[in-house]
Amino acid sequence: MVNVIGLGYIGLPTALMMAAHGVKVVGTDYNPELVATLKSGKTTFKEDGLDELFADAVKGGIEFSTEYQVTDTYIVSVPTPYDKFSKKIDACYVISAVQSVMAVCPKGAVVVIESTVSPGTIDKFVRPAIEAKGFEIGKDIHLVHAPERIIPGNMIYELLHNNRTIGADDKVIGEKVKELYASFCQGEIVVTDIRTAEMTKVVENTFRAVNIAFANELAKICMHDDMDVYEIIKICNMHPRVNILQPGPGVGGHCISVDPWFLVGDYPGLTKVIGQAMAVNDSMPEFVLDRIHEIMIENHMSDLSRVGLYGLTYKENVDDCRESPTLQLLESQSRHLADPLKTYDPYVTEEMVEHQYYDFDEFIDSVDMVVVMVGHDEIKQNQHKLHGKIVLDTRKVCSPDIGKVYYI
Ligand code: SAJ
Q1: The CATH number, out of the four listed (3.90.190.20, 3.10.20.310, 3.40.50.720, 1.10.3090.10), of the domain defined by the range 227-407
Q2: What pTM was computed for the model?
């Protein structure tokens, strides 16, 4: 039996996927409300295909509990926040989960860490936590790092099809864990050592962050000299060896906007490109704020309460608002002591910020200028309703034909 610890955005789909593929799974989370919701047959966040997968996992006998189980295999999938000032990882949840596993697990158990950790975290924090409980690693406990790779918005497909990395001290244990993941994963599964696995995960997200920063910097250059950054990127990407990502209002989510800082925090003198890239991405919400002011002046608008931000989540068609560019923008704006802008997001039904709307039409009626911060399908399909408004589209989802549309 596999005990999956932490039933959030990664732990839950992973537990469900294994259970739906014949593995006996108990999912454990320390939040009793979350466990009660899952036990009552409901999922805890929105994701394409998650409800269907949940039904299959229930048929496969999945159970949910607040208790750690006595078993031979644990998968730890808890959050790894970072300290905003030092830029270093805060491994407290991983350490506490591993300590709780140690309190119940039999000798010989395999502990797989799925949470993203900065290179060296397992050596620095996880091994000492295990040894402090009197266990000998490699004999009493086997350690594995299997970083997740799935993208919110397409998680279920990617869980099934992405290639994976398994880092293990002992190749035999690595192969055993590979077999477990192969119960559902149709991609290639590479077995390597733990430090390499830690590093690959952070490097993958850093590669994407640097590429997005490059696109954002191009957007600023093009804005400065009135060139169309989207057309330029489109043409450049027709070159067989060029693949530039898209500019936007900033980078959010709990991965791309966080993981590269682990490298900057640990190697401050060696991360010039990465550090600058992260600074460029972090500057984007302020850049959008400046664009809003410029466009307001150009259109003789002075009333900020007539400006609305469309989208609160960190990207399209997900309900996750962690580190979202819209929240970053509102925070910058609050430093200027201005009244917060109006906001609306079809995926955010609970109050999150001031002046939040819950109905698309009411939101549109209440403003003269709409700033598209997130390219949800809803806005793509309803862009005709923006007719007559001034639009700042930071995601290039609206056609210039709908009216007075600006891009970044
Ligand atoms: N973004 C842009 N321009 C782009 C692409 C993205 O501005 O061209 C923005 C998005 O709007 C969003 C942020 O970047 O605010 C991050 O979104 P994302 O879709 O690039 O990635 P995440 O954070 O949802 O998921 C990433 C993925 N990593 C890579 O693609 C290398 C995913 O595979 C990882 O599993 C995930 O991080 C994670 O958990 O680490």
Answers
A1: 3.40.50.720
A2: 0.95
